[in-house]
Amino acid sequence: MLQAPRGRARAALRRLAVATRTMAGAPTVSLPELRSLLASGRARLFDVRSREEAAAGTIPGALNIPVSELESALQMEPAAFQALYSAEKPKLEDEHLIFFCQMGKRGLQATQLARSLGYTGARNYAGAYREWLEKES
After folding, report:
1. pLDDT score at 95
2. pTM for the complete prediction?
């Protein structure tokens, strides 16, 4: 029986691992991974639901930018972003930019949009606020 070279096998396993963390072409983050990233302070969290939805409850530390505003927000000059959202604008090279909504669809759209604008570290929390509420309350 022939075996693939170790380097090739490892590369194939890495591709498989990335593929399993991908939802419809956008990388995802699981609840345990999100907890770990938040605990270590390594994630920037974006709630892309409406202001009304976010005002009713959100994941602690999340910045609310409704998905309808996200494209213009991510293209703003850093000073304008800071003035409007009272937060530092994410950088293209930031590693863990996590987008979420209520059920998953808008978070996925936001992740795909951010990635199309060059934010390579953009990921979707596919469990969304719904899962957070169920598991964290």
Report:
1. 94
2. 0.81
